Amino acid sequence: MSTGLATRYAPSFRLIAAHFGLGLLGLLVLSAALAWRASALHGHYFQPALLGLVHLCVLGWLVPIAIGALHQLVPVVFEVPVRSERAAWTALALYVPGAVGLIGHLWMFATGWGLVASAGALVVAVWLYIANLLLTLARAERVTLTGAYMIAALVWLAIAAGIGFALAWNLHAPFLYVDHLRWLRGHAHAAGLGFFVLLVMGVAYRLLEMFLLSHVPDTRPGRVALVAINAATAMLLVAFVFGDVPALAIAGVVAAAVGVAAFFVQVAWLWRARMRRRADTAWHHTAASLGYLAIAVAAGAAAALVPLPAPWRERVALAYGFLVFGGFLTSVVVGQLYKIAPFLVWFHRFSAYVGLKQVPAASELLPAAPQRVQWVLMHAGIAALAAGIALAAGPLRLAGAVLFGGSSALVARNLWTIYRRQP
Amino acid sequence: MTIDEPLQTALREVMDPETGINLVDLGLIRSAHKDPHGAVIVTMTLTTPACPAGEMMVEGVKRRLLRVDGVADVEVEITFEPPWTPEEITPAGRAELGWR
């Protein structure tokens, strides 16, 4: 029965902090690697340094934050404890060497048993996380729209991880009947569209409602988006893997566009109904991320459907991938970190003093100015990187990578400031 | 919303950690009454049943009211009937949220 006191189900602070800390470390390493090898963001996407960078972004930065956030949100939103914290720690212990090994082997294009072993550790870790979270969700009394998104996202993550392992093995000892690059595109879309986009959408409805103090009972656009994005991911996966199915690719792109449009409608409704009128930096990051998502959909549609000449085809495809992972997902994650991290620190350090003395609000744990500076640096960096990729302009890519690196250092500094706050 | 006077003043010092707005102006306190023996019963709601700050706000309400003269015991009841809606935010709360 709902008690209304959901925080009692929250997992240990250490579990969430470990995942967020790992993700933050991943962001800093990614930023350094990006500045070092900004030249890799050029040409065909199947090249070692680029594969290393993409997996560093996804496995080093985005996935640890997403997994940490899921372990915090699922128990609180659905009022059930995590099925097993020990399983989550075990998964993390497997995940770290698996991810580091996979990124390193891809970067050096070392396709020996080390690559297979790293991918094996990684897939076991990811499946363990997923099983633990799905078993947690299975205990919920009622699966809401957000819960349906989470379940679908986790299923796609399991598929993406499985394909990823097969691809690693295929680099070591080719066995896939279908061309490696086709599976690679399917793998990227299962992870990017199936897991990340669905997860962000599902969580966004819940968090925007809470953070904007907004109440929109009509969730039809959200339901349309759920069906459309799932259908799009499935159709694109089949179209990529089995190739030469243009009708399915077109249908997949249309479904993805419909899904994103429906998501925008639901967000617009939440925005219009908000009681909290002052937009903070977290919201500005979210707004920017929606812009990147819209441009990414257009770039993805162009890459998939328009017969572009060779250099433009590669540039648009790269820009599309960058806008999804480096633009949309990175901005939305940084924005939500500015919400979740202060709250977690406030909960563990300040909440015991509520009612006894004046305590700051969670949003007051970090002044607005350093957040704004970080926002400017980050979005200038992302814009320069995207333009540099699309126009094949090396100096622009390098300038973007340096700005992005500065913004990442500022994210780390800002979160460290929050973490150090004491009553 | 019916809240006995010294209790209302005290409850305005308990803030929602996310918005920084006190629970009275956020419309979360439905009623708060003290009986002649110093026992206080507060009926409050949360912005959502899964509010991550729910437990802390309940504990904060208890701690603050126990510091009010004449209060010996505090009981907090959570209700979602009817569920909270933004319309329950007071004009003062709306001003703090940026409504003009």
Describe the structure.
The complex is a heterodimer of chains A (423) and B (100). Chain A has helices at 13-36, 48-78, 85-108, 113-138, 145-172, 180-211, 220-242, 246-272, 281-305, 310-350, 368-390, 394-420. With 423 residues, chain A is mainly alpha-helical. Chain A has a domain at 1-142. Chain A is globular, with a radius of gyration of 21 Å. The two termini of chain A are 34 Å apart. Chain B has 100 residues and is an alpha/beta fold. Chain B has a single domain (2-90), classed as GMP Synthetase, Chain A, domain 3, CATH 3.30.300. Chain B has three helices and four strands. Chain B has helices at residues 5-11, 54-65, 91-96, and strands spanning 2-3, 29-34, 39-44, 73-78. In chain B, strands 1-2-3-4 form a four-stranded mixed sheet. The longest helix of chain B has 12 residues, at 54-65. Chain B is globular, with a radius of gyration of 13 Å. The model of chain B has no long low-confidence stretch (mean pLDDT 89). The A-B interface holds A 2-8, 10, 76-79, 209-211, 213-215, 273, 275-278, 343, 346-347, 350-352, 354-356, 358-364 and B 13-20, 45-67, 78, 80, 85-86, 89, 94, 97-100.
Task: Annotate the secondary structure layout.
The complex is a heterodimer of chains A (423) and B (100).
Chain A: H1 13-36, H2 48-78, H3 85-108, H4 113-138, H5 145-172, H6 180-211, H7 220-242, H8 246-272, H9 281-305, H10 310-350, H11 368-390, H12 394-420
Helix pairs in contact in A: 1-2, 1-12, 2-3, 2-4, 2-10, 3-4, 4-5, 5-6, 5-7, 6-7, 6-8, 6-10, 7-8, 8-9, 9-10, 9-11, 10-11, 10-12, 11-12
Chain B: E1 2-3, H1 5-11, E2 29-34, E3 39-44, H2 54-65, E4 73-78, H3 91-96
Parallel strand pairs in B: 1-2, 3-4
Antiparallel strand pairs in B: 2-3
Q: Give the total of beta strands of chain B.
A: 4
Q: How helix-rich are the residues of chain B, as a percent range?
A: 25-40%
How is the main sheet of chain B built?
A: 4 strands, mixed
Distance between the termini of chain B: 23 Å
Q: Give the N-terminus to C-terminus distance of chain A in angstroms.
A: 34 Å
Tell me the strand percentage band of chain A: under 5%
**Protein chains sharing the most extensive interface:** A-B, 39 and 41 residues
